[in-house]
Amino acid sequence: MTIATTSGGGQPGSALERGGSGGSGGTLADVVETVLDKGVVIDAQVSVAVVGIQLLEINARIVIASVETYLRFAETVDRLNIVPEDQKGLPDLVDGATGAVTKGKAISGLGKAAQEISGAVVDSLGDRGSERERERPRRRRDEER
Amino acid sequence: MADETGLFLYGIVPSDVEPTPDAAGVGEPPGEVDVVRHRDLAVLVSEVGLEEPIGRPADLTAYQTLLDGTAEVAPVLPVRFGTVVTGPDAVTDLLEAHHEQFAAALDEFEDRTQYTVHGRFDEQQLISELLAENPDAAALAEQVRGRPEIESREQRIRLGEMIAQAVELRREAENRALIDAVGELAVRHAPRQPSDELDAVNVAFLVGVDDEEEFVRVLEDFAEQRRDLIRTRLLGPLAPYDFVSAHQLVE
Questions:
Q1: Is the Cβ of A141 closer than 8 Å to some Cβ of chain B?
Q2: How far apart are CA A121 and CA B110, in angstroms?
Q3: What is each CA distance from A44 to A133, B51, B76, B238, in whole angstroms?
Q4: What does the pLDDT look like over B135-155, one tens digit per residue?
Q5: Segment Disordered: which positions (chain A) (predicted)?
């Protein structure tokens, strides 16, 4: 079975894929998941002149089970034993990888930064045959901050 | 208008850390990475225009590349992405005010690195297994299979819900199995929120340099045992993004 590789490294034939360090080899979705919403938070009260902290919280990380999900699972049941297993290739995997970020509707109240990030993920993955059409977010939208 | 600049903070490091000339920061063109030192601590910074939007994919990648690269040679405490202060004075104030916490945290990260294990279920394989284990779901699957959604919507939702619950249980079990398999090879572990409904495992581990090889070997085994069911990926070595929460200065 061929495994879609979005990352370098790893032993040939190994079931464990390697990647995602230092932004090399990892996908943008990996970077977003790895760094956003992490790290020391410096609050303004420590007399530090904080110009701006863009708190980028991607609420879409929290997976909420929905009717949409249920119906999709049921649809998968329809496809069982019909589609040969090894046809599950890159588009499926990549499509899944965007899930973290492209559930853009769950992102609310964010600065333009997060919107651009999610936009870029959609952009970079959209041409790989993702079946989920998403609205292409505006880039560099002017917004008051 | 765009003349005003601030300092973008990347991470807190021991003061003997020196950025390499090729270190690239956020911004367009990429900012030059500098250090602001105070006593035995320092912060990796770069100048940014305050009008400049930060948060483009290249900015995030630059941030992570710098921190992960630094983590390979020295302990580093990532500062949350997007933190910009007025200038060097603000940085020294910060280091002065929190010197003890920062120094203690850096000690803890000495010779340790983060790895994140992220696995996703193969949907078809997973659902096949779940149906084989659950006669009720299998019976329901028989009823809906091949019938248009409009006729079988109720059953489909019920079936999907059963599957979703089973997936969640399976995910919990796999995360536990992963943490058990790693065991003492990690100093600490931090479960991460699933990022997708097909997430199988998602855990960050803090691993000592002496244990890295064995840690990877254990994960190879873990992945091999689940080859058909889970696509397992190992991200790292990384800066300890998931292990700084205890050092947050929220108050």
A1: no
A2: 34
A3: 40, 20, 22, 28
A4: 999 999 999 988 888 899 999
A5: 1-23, 123-145
Q: Do B54 and A113 touch (CB under 8 A)?
A: yes
Reduced to 3 DSSP states, what percent helix, strand and coil does chain B have, rounded to the nearest 5?
Answer: 45, 25, 25
Assembly ipTM: 0.84
Q: Do B61 and A23 touch (CB under 8 A)?
A: yes
Best CA proximity match to B81, nearest among B112, B118, B44: B44
pLDDT band at B116 (very low <50, low <70, confident <90, very high): very high
Q: Which of A118-122, B16-20, B22-26, B90-94 has the lowest mean pLDDT?
A: A118-122
The two tokens of residue A132 are 């989920």
Scored b (16 or more CB within 10 A) or e, B166-196 reads bbeebbeebbeebbeebeebbeebbebebbb
Is residue A44 less than 8 Å (CB to CB) from chain B?
Answer: no
